[in-house]
Amino acid sequence: MNAPLPCHRCGTKLLLSTDRPHPRFVNAIYRRNLCPQCDVSDPAAAGILAFFAVHHHITNGNIKEFETLLHEWVDRTAEAPQVSPEAFAADVEAFKRGDLD
Ligand SMILES: [Zn+2]
Q1: What is the pTM of this model?
Q2: 3-state class (DSSP) for residue 13
Q3: 40 in a domain, yes or no?
Q4: Cα(24) to centroid of ligand 1, in Å?
Q5: Ligand 1 centre from 74 Cα, in Å?
Q6: DSSP label of 74
Q7: Does residue 2 sit within a domain?
Q8: What is the extent of the structural domain holding 74?
């Protein structure tokens, strides 16, 4: 298992990250991070955050509870941001002109 990554929003160590297939781009992933600071007001994260507040580690004794709460968080988490074909084409043209950072 890798060391926890820092949250890109606040720098706090992430509790976990999930990679899901991107709904639009083939062979691309959509990463969703769970941050104990940034996601504290997200109702979808309430269960999994409570799990880590109580347990701190995943063990054989609590792995079923973790699995349930993980699925709940993933299922309730918003899908990857969608980009319209027009916005995507505009970004491609801006990139070709060298106008995209
Ligand atoms: Zn954060």
Answers
A1: 0.71
A2: strand
A3: yes
A4: 26
A5: 17
A6: H
A7: no
A8: 16-97
Is the predicted pLDDT of residue 24 greater than 80, yes or no?
no
Residues 65 and 50: their CA atoms lie apart, in Å, by: 11
Which runs of E-coded beta strand occur in 1-88?
Answer: 16-21, 29-34
Tens-digit pLDDT profile for residues 47-77? 999 999 999 889 999 999 999 999 999 888 8
Task: Please tell me the distance between residue 61's alpha carbon and the centre of ligand 1 in angstroms.
Answer: 28
Measured in angstroms, how far is the CA atom of residue 15 from the centroid of ligand 1? 10
Report how far ligand 1's centroid is from the alpha carbon of 44 (Å).
15
Q: Give the three-state DSSP class for 73.
A: helix
Question: Ligand 1 centre from 39 Cα, in Å?
Answer: 7
Q: What span, in angstroms and rounded, lies between the C-alpha atoms of 35 and 17?
A: 9
